[in-house]
Amino acid sequence: MPSLQKECDKAAHILKGFIEKGRIPVEVIANAKGLAIFSGFRAAMYLAGAGGSGVVVARLADGSWSPPSAFSVTSGGFGVAYGLDVYDCVCVLNIQEAIDAYTTGETTLGAGGTMAAGPIGGRPHINTKEVKPVWTYTKSRGIYGGLTVDGTIIKERSGVNAEAYGLNITAAQILRGETKWPSTTQLPEVLKMGEGKSTDANVLGAVSTEPTPGDLKE
């Protein structure tokens, strides 16, 4: 199983790709209460099911981001898929209930509120009436959008979190900022980049330039 460090680097890679392609507006990330970033796969039609992993971060009272909490995703509800379909997903969590869903041990993605495809870049202002509890951004085989991930089961990877932060740590404690960030630098800088803040160019330059999982072809 990937360590939290590897999950954070993967999340930085995925999120940076969405930002650089102009898929997620600065305003969306700047106003988000949380972000869940993960990659997953859909199995062949005779091996119905799916899986994956990622991290979630939450906005703290001072406006900074909480340390990341690791989680896994599984689902058999993606329908028919021929071959191996790998995808990237960023869930923008706009209400506290959506964040709380990641602290319950195991729940269904979307249980914290209605999910909808998020607005894309190029919009100077987003009407607050348009804001949904969860906005999703997906990419599969290099194509953005078109993948529905609601119904996916998310489960805290307590072992990964314990290895990174210490025994008896919970996702709720991590997302409340009751522990320190692990020794990872890429994800914090990409989060700043997504909010339109100044960043360390050297750190951003170290983020992988290889295709993300969602760019892979069958």
From TrEMBL:
Which InterPro entries does the record associate with it?
Answer: SH3_domain_YSC84-like (IPR051702), Ysc84_actin-binding (IPR007461)
Pfam families documented for this protein: Ysc84
Q: Where is the Ysc84 actin-binding domain?
A: 75-192
**What's the protein here called?**
Ysc84 actin-binding domain-containing protein
User: What superkingdom heads the lineage?
Assistant: Eukaryota
Endpoints of the signal sequence: none
Native organism: Cladophialophora yegresii CBS 114405
GO MF entry, a single one: phosphatidylinositol binding
